[in-house]
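Supplementary Note 3. Input sequence used for the single-chain structure prediction.
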Amino acid sequence: REAELGITIGNRDYWSRGYGADAVRCMLRHLFYDMRLRRVFLHTLSWNYRAQASFEHAGFRQVKRVTRGGYDFIYMEAFPGDEDGDEDGDEDGDEDAAGE
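The predicted structure, written as discrete structure tokens, is reproduced below.
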């Protein structure tokens, strides 16, 4: 059992405050421990370093670079327990983290 996750924080006033990483951590806890999923994955645009850093702070790790619809993405995934990682980290941002 697995799911693909995406998040967008559209209002730039709320970027770089850690809200995206916090929301993703909460979602991962729900998906892993309430929904009993074994893996959550996502694709984020390869140039979106802020989103990649935010996802890493939330517990995701980069796996590979992929091309979808002519765009380059970073494929990332998380497993149960990963969401408890860098909660005190310095969040770099959450802009259009879904990448699509």
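The two ends are 23 Å apart (CA to CA). The chain has one domain: 2-84.
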